[in-house]
Specification:
The structure is a single chain. By secondary structure, the chain is an alpha/beta fold. It has one domain: Rossmann fold (3-Layer(aba) Sandwich). The protein has five helices and ten strands; from the N terminus they run αββαβαββββαβαββ. The strands form three sheets. A six-stranded mixed sheet has the order 4-3-7-8-9-10, sandwiched between helices. Strands 1-2 form a two-stranded antiparallel ribbon. Strands 5-6 form a two-stranded antiparallel ribbon. The relative contact order is 0.18.
Length: about 190
């Protein structure tokens, strides 16, 4: 996805401690044209991998919402995002999993209503980054708790230097990254 790769090359800033700032187009200010293209590219790649019969796109609050929304819109299915706080309106039997917020540096608990994620669902997980893999592991746990079928994982940017793909191991579904970055002497290499 060349347009995304070029934006990462020209605008991403490495802040140290694994943090990459892409808030000018992805997770603070959002470029809707680029995000629409990202959603279409995820749809294309999942279709090529044989993912069919999708019923839902699932992500984590908050920075995964924009790319997940774009993907859900192109696929014509609902978007479900895991909340970082359980609202009083959510049933007591919500699915929960713990992750680590990289930008806040503290644990975060994710909640998904059992009403909106069920064993009848066929889902893909979408997130803005694949870094250490902890957020995706938490989302995988939520999907497993629900009994839904996982058909694929998609990340806009993969931080290769953090090894998240290896930590996730063999999960038996396509894992798609639209741009990959590595670090060489604290300099980002984008491909």
């Amino acid at each position: 996805m060349q347009a995304l790769i070029e934006r990462v090359r020209t605008e991403a800033v490495y802040l140290g401690k694994g943090i990459v700032k892409v808030d000018g187009f992805l997770n603070h200010q959002v470029d809707p044209v680029l995000l629409t293209a990202i959603g279409a590219e995820f749809m294309r790649r999942f279709a090529e991998s044989g993912c069919d019969g999708l019923t839902k796109v699932v992500t984590a609050e908050a920075s995964g919402i924009a790319p997940a929304f774009a993907t859900a819109q192109v696929l014509g299915v609902p978007l479900l995002y895991a909340r970082k706080q359980r609202p009083v309106t959510m049933p007591e039997d919500a699915y929960t999993a713990e992750t680590l917020s990289r930008t806040r540096g503290e644990p975060a608990r994710l909640f998904v209503s059992s009403r909106y994620l069920t064993a009848r669902d066929r889902v893909v997980l979408i997130d803005d980054f694949l870094g250490t893999g902890t957020t995706l592991q938490a989302m995988l746990s939520l999907v497993a708790q629900s009994g839904a079928a996982l058909l694929g994982l998609g990340c806009v940017v993969e931080k290769v230097y953090e090894g998240g793909r290896d930590r996730l191991g063999t999960i038996g579904v396509p894992m798609v990254s639209l741009a990959r970055i590595d670090l060489v002497d604290d300099t980002l290499v984008v491909y």
